[in-house]
Design a protein that fits this description.
The chain is an alpha+beta fold. The protein is 38% helix and 17% strand. The protein is built from six helices and five strands, in the order βααββαβααβα. The protein has a three-stranded antiparallel sheet, covered by helices on one side. It has a two-stranded parallel ribbon with strand order 4-5.
């Protein structure tokens, strides 16, 4: 058995969870059990903090200090785009499978998402981050300003569309 963590030591656990749902305690137990935490209580905390991401898979960061866990949602680009599409919440257990996300979002929404994702992006500039988000929009299957995301990427690369840098 591993030694108990030091009193003021900070542990970080990152995991994927479905927003607004209590995760199975059996999946949380191997991650938080050795740290002396109750998987059921952690599952309820995750559910409370991910209510506005209902039905979407999000990455959750647990910061554990003195056997107290604080839950923080780390949104992925795909989750942010799905949220921007404003699709109705679907039941993951009974609902339709392989849903096509064929909605439309504006370029302003894409730029806002890029600003949110900027610290985690590998791109040098905001323009590069916007292109990354457009690539994610393409893989999800939605359009941007009624156009195909690939077309917008080409227009940004050629300089037809300007992306503000702040």
């Amino acid at each position: 058995m591993p030694p108990k963590p030091e009193a003021a030591e900070e542990k970080i656990v990152i995991l994927r969870a479905v927003g607004g749902e209590v995760g199975a305690a059996s999946t949380l137990a191997p991650k938080v059990g050795p740290l002396g935490l109750s998987p059921k209580k952690i599952g309820e905390d995750i559910m409370k903090n991910t209510m506005d991401w209902k039905g979407l898979k999000v990455t959750v960061k647990l910061t554990i200090v003195n056997r107290q866990a604080s839950v923080e949602v780390v949104p992925a680009a795909s989750s942010l785009i799905m949220k921007a599409l404003n699709e109705p919440v679907r039941d993951r257990k009974k609902g339709p499978k392989d849903v096509v996300h064929d909605g439309d979002i504006t370029l302003e929404q894409v730029i806002d998402i890029a600003r949110t994702m900027r610290p985690r992006s590998m791109a040098k500039t905001l323009t590069g981050t916007v292109k990354e988000i457009l690539g994610t929009a393409f893989s999800i299957g939605c359009t941007v300003n009624g156009e195909h995301p690939r077309d917008l990427q080409e227009q940004i690369a050629s300089g037809d569309i300007e992306i503000p840098e702040e």
